[in-house]
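Quick one before lunch.
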Amino acid sequence: MRRDAPELIVALDAATPKEALRLVEEIGDAASFYKIGMELAYGGGLPLVGELARAGKHVFLDLKLHDIPNTVEKATANVARLGATFLTVHAYPQTMAAARRGAAGSPLKVLGVTVMTSFDDADLAEAGYGLGVEALVLRRARQARGIGIDGLVLSGRELAAVREEVGDALALVTPGVRPAGAEVGDQKRVMTPGDAIRAGADHLVVGRPIIAAPSPREAARAIAAEIKAAR
Ligand code: C5P
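Model of the cytidine-5'-monophosphate complex:
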């Protein structure tokens, strides 16, 4: 059983570490888990991992690693030393197994990204795959469970089928969440926080509805309360 209590993860989609830290300060105790993606990480944000961890926050480092096993294993071990709580890798069997070895003995949890949500069946065919999105997501979810990584990142649309496939073995982390009435932005298939939790999500990644709100702290509080109520 790898599922923890459901939790809100705020996507720190900021251009600079300074802006990211300002958001963390504004949000205060309304959230304790932050996602740092590639933009911020490669924009000088990697030291924030240790800084936030030392301040008692959890960090989801969304780097989507994918390389030869030796490189993935060693990179994952370095991410564990930074103090991150979650790290993403592409859900290829070699890559997941290597990341699992790299995280062994540390509190770092490895999450597999099954199929990028920007891909549809035609994109997969063009890239040379013989499976459609749904079949490939389920195949990789099964492989992730077999390899023994900690969880998966997936859209709300895939939650119910994947939860049925993997049972309680994996933590499921879902972006594309919008409180009722919020701006959808460029997200195409959105779910409310309550619906995503009820469909089987463990942790929700929310960016703009919090970081672009007039009061990020109040917005985070409201979403965290909705998550708690849906447990
Ligand atoms: O602002 P918003 O709530 O849409 O941000 C969601 C976060 O989750 C962003 O950091 C985005 O890159 C990420 N994400 C996503 N959809 C995916 C994978 C990641 O929205 N399929």
